[in-house]
Amino acid sequence: MNFRKQLKAETVGFQLAPMIDVVFLLLCFFITSQIFAQWETEIDITLPTAETGQVPERLPGEIIINIRSDGETIINAQPVPPAQLADMLTRIAEMFPGQPVLIRADRLTPYEEVIRVLDLCRQADIWNISFATGVPE
Fold first, then answer.
1. Helix 82-95 × helix 111-123 angle, to 10°
2. pTM (global) more than 0.85
3. I want to staple 136 with a disulfide (CB 3.0 to 4.6 A). Which of 35, 49, 58, 120 is the partner?
4. What CATH code is carried by the domain that includes residue 48?
């Protein structure tokens, strides 16, 4: 005679607590990465528009050089004088060959200022350069 109860295997239901933890961690990650992606574009620059312009995918480690309408060069929300910019670009090109650079110039920026930054990139042997444009409204 077997007087022990038969232990039935209970089916494990959907574990909701770990799923909520994972969703909150993903949410925190994407919010944080979105904040970092927006820092460079918050600078008060009105980009020129282009009909064929596309929003390119951001490349990892891409350097964004912002040029205001008065010709001031800004990187990482800090004004950078031309001599310091040349030194910075040279060091970056030596450490990371093929480093991508994005030039964002205001639509009222004199052409001479854009060429000055482009020339500094050429002198530093940076060849992977792109220009930011806006989408027409």
1. 40
2. no
3. 49
4. 3.30.420.270
